[in-house]
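Here is the promised in-class demo. Please do not try to memorize the tokens; focus on the logic of going from shape to residues.
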């Protein structure tokens, strides 16, 4: 996934409630229909030709439809061949906190074939509205995020986060803090469907967008014509399951790194056992953290857990630039200079302790149930992955969440759902996406045999071709279909 730090610099928080109760699992009786919006040409520069904009209002709290309202901005690219028009495809952005309209602007040139028969529709989810109006106090980390080694340390962390969450909640004037769960987002998505005048929608969900996509499938299965999932999270099976499934993939990619380094003189660890150096570095840093100073985030310490969690990228980058930088940073860090990791590690650890960022995800059941679960999952992770095993940073950040979990992880009823199409990188998110799609009878997931995340936002032609065929003709590729790296 895109790192938190990269997203923050791109212009906003992006990180994978009130007692919307489990009654929220059943759609309420439909109130007044959402009026069709007034579309107009979008204002701004560097927009795809023909992009139109509009807005609709939805309740802040769907349990109180006549209560305070929230404006959702919409955009669409009308079908380029109206005589062939099938309907609308709604993009479901990730993050949470990513802007679907920005996604559409970015991907439009690669989706021209899909646009022949569809209006391509995007929206700015409620967590973007929250992100744009989040109180300053919500952006202060509640604690220094670390891996608790005993119950007392965990309870201290949870208490600090609970105080930060309550301060953020009290400072919130929008009412959104308590209503950022994906069931609320799914209801917003259905309001968009109504505003478009469509009986059923087709969807393209990416990354964390898989969580509201699953919520939509739970609430409105009869409204789904087709669902394409690209590098999506699988909240249905629970976040610990997702984390444990990902670790073997990281181990395989790390072996790719060490093999590459052994054959690359430019690698700073060339001629040595890069894996052994990394494991010794993280063990030593757990015993004696490395002091660092970041020009952006100030002073801090790098423990082995911080390094295992935030330092390594499964995407080597152009010309292996990220792996070259990683090896250089490891080489310096083993000699006491952690500067190569300071910005990325301290930045991510800081954001994942900010209540304003976590409010967009904790109500989707992202936190540990307590120290006992943390300890159990950590032991499993350490057995699976000697290089990266440890507590999950996102679950730690959600410790102390003060509200009931509005969208708990639980089995997904699949009756009435059409087959889904998934796509994912075998270097990254394929295993998670496939664990989601396999729940839906008849579904297929295409394996992209290269690094990266979210193929259709990366312009990967082969996955886009399969997505276009599926969304247009409802034709799935054969099980086991792969796409070569591009």
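The designed amino acids, position by position:
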């Amino acid at each position: 996934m895109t790192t938190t730090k990269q997203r923050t610099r791109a212009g906003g928080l992006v990180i994978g409630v009130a007692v919307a109760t489990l009654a929220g699992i059943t759609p309420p009786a439909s109130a007044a229909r959402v009026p069709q919006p007034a579309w107009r040409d979008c204002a701004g520069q560097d927009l795809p030709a023909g992009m139109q904009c509009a807005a609709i209002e939805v309740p802040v709290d769907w349990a109180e439809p006549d209560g305070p309202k929230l404006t959702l901005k919409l955009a669409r690219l009308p079908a380029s061949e109206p005589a062939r028009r099938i309907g609308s495809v709604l993009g479901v952005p990730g993050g949470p906190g990513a802007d679907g309209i920005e996604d559409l602007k970015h991907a439009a040139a690669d989706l021209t074939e899909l646009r022949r028969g569809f209006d391509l529709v995007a929206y700015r989810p409620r967590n973007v509205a929250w992100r744009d109006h989040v109180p300053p106090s919500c952006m202060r980390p509640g604690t220094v995020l670390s891996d608790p080694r005993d119950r007392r340390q965990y309870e201290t962390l949870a208490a600090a986060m609970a105080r930060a969450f309550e301060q953020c909640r009290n400072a919130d004037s929008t009412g959104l803090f308590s209503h950022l769960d994906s069931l609320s987002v799914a209801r917003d998505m259905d309001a968009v469907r109504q505003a478009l005048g469509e009986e059923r929608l087709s969807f393209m969900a990416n990354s964390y967008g898989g969580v509201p996509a699953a919520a939509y499938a739970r609430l409105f299965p009869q409204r789904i014509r087709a669902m394409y999932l690209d590098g999506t999270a699988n909240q249905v099976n629970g976040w610990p399951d997702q984390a444990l499934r990902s670790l073997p993939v990281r181990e395989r990619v790390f072996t790719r790194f060490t093999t590459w380094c052994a054959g690359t003189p430019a690698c700073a660890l060339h001629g040595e056992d890069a894996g052994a150096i990394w494991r010794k570095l993280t063990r030593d840093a757990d015993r004696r953290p490395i002091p660092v100073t970041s020009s952006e985030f100030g002073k801090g310490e790098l423990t082995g857990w911080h390094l295992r969690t935030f330092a390594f990228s499964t995407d080597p980058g152009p010309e292996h630039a990220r792996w070259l930088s990683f090896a250089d940073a490891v080489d310096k860090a083993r000699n006491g200079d952690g500067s190569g990791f300071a910005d990325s590690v301290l930045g991510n650890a800081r954001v994942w302790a900010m209540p304003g960022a976590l409010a967009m995800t904790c109500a989707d059941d992202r936190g540990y149930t307590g120290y006992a679960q943390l300890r159990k999952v950590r032991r499993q992770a350490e057995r699976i992955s000697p290089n990266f095993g440890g507590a999950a940073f996102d679950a730690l950040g959600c410790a102390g969440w003060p509200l009931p979990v509005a969208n708990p992880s639980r089995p997904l009823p699949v009756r009435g759902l059409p087959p889904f199409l998934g796509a994912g990188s075998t270097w990254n998110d394929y295993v998670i996406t496939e664990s989601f799609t396999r729940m839906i009878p008849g579904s297929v997931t295409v394996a992209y045999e290269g690094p990266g995340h979210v193929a259709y936002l990366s312009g990967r032609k082969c996955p886009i071709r399969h997505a276009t065929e599926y969304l247009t003709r409802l034709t799935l590729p054969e099980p086991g279909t792969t796409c070569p790296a591009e």
